């Protein structure tokens, strides 16, 4: 009987080994005809592997919203074969941050030589960003439209459809003519004088059919664009002075309306270089706000991010001394002042012993890491000692909070971060 009981136990153990049970206690009872005479009253089985805890679901919603056409408003005329850059300004209107790997993908229409997908920067909920793509006007006259939609890294589509729509005229004269008879017969602009330090004097000429009102919108800025009434709305010329531009080669757009409220538009580009040049090659049409700063810097990698220290950052006439940028691998960044005092603060804490192959940061990095539990928990241990180098830093013109800036890392790569004025935001590596 004892042999039968032992054999039954081994068979029971073999069955249990195939089941995901953390711990099982089987106790022999007098009612069991097989186990009642077992010499061991209880059997404890402990699995060799611990089941992985299931992650807690994050309740948030992906969302997007079109804000403005930074370039190429609807029905902008282009000569056949002309290359152009379309820039959309969009808002993360959801409650989820956009992750790295989010794209704007082509879904329908005429691609016009544009990309099948455009990389979208990681973006916090409630923040705005500009997204650009290169296109080529078709060679056949007509109206063309390419439709795009946002796509999460897992392939989920979200947000509204946004598009680029252009007109390839059948004649050399750009014309947008609704069936009402309202038509912009011609619209041109020329720079008649450069105005120091960064302005231009521009002369417009227009000829319109069927309009009761017309005006010209400036593309030198988008949030509060300049507007000039085109008087008379039938045909005329006007000279305006514009002090600066936020965008390279801005578009000027003539908008005409008739008595019934119908509208026609035509745009022309003003050749206009930014006042300052970027310190790195880029097709970014938004201008730098100031000249680039060159400064001594230090960088240290961590398990889940890195720190960059800037000795001095110049923003026009303002100078910021000893700034620490904390860049987390999840695409977020934070800005801190370096409060380390030479000869007063200890370089490190000898009671903190890192694991083998890892490091405790020292000096300014170390003080911030030790005194800020959030930074320490999110970064982890340093994976190498800090290194000094010379770097460049530059701020971008911005029309809202969350000012973008660019900085070169130790390995030569340039990163873009948004949120200099708020002290935190998102960052990404430039292609």
Secondary-structure blueprint:
Layout (H helix, E strand, L loop, with lengths): L1 H15 L7 E4 L14 E4 L19 E5 L6 E2 L5 E9 L11 E7 L7 E3 L8 E9 L5 E10 L5 E12 L14 E13 L3 E11 L3 E6 L8 E3 L5 E8 L8 E7 L5 E7 L23 E10 L2 E11 L2 E11 L3 E6 L25 H9 L1 H7 L7 E9 L8 E5 L5 E5 L5 E6 L2
Parallel strand pairs: 4-10
Antiparallel strand pairs: 1-2, 3-5, 5-8, 6-7, 6-9, 9-10, 11-12, 12-15, 13-14, 13-16, 16-17, 18-19, 18-22, 19-20, 20-21, 21-25, 22-23, 23-24, 24-25
Q: What does this molecule look like?
A:
β11 (183-195) and β12 form a beta hairpin. The protein has an eight-stranded antiparallel beta barrel. The chain has four domains: 2-45, no CATH class; 65-168, Immunoglobulins (Immunoglobulin-like, Sandwich); 183-212 and 225-244 and 251-269, no CATH class; 293-429, no CATH class. It is mostly beta strands and 431 residues long. The chain is built from three helices and 25 strands. 7% of the residues lie in helices and 42% in strands. Residues 1-48 and 171-179 have low confidence and may be disordered.
List keywords for this structure.
mainly beta, single chain, disordered N terminus, 3 helices, elongated, 25 strands, five-stranded mixed beta sheet, 431 residues, 4 domains, Immunoglobulin-like, eight-stranded antiparallel barrel
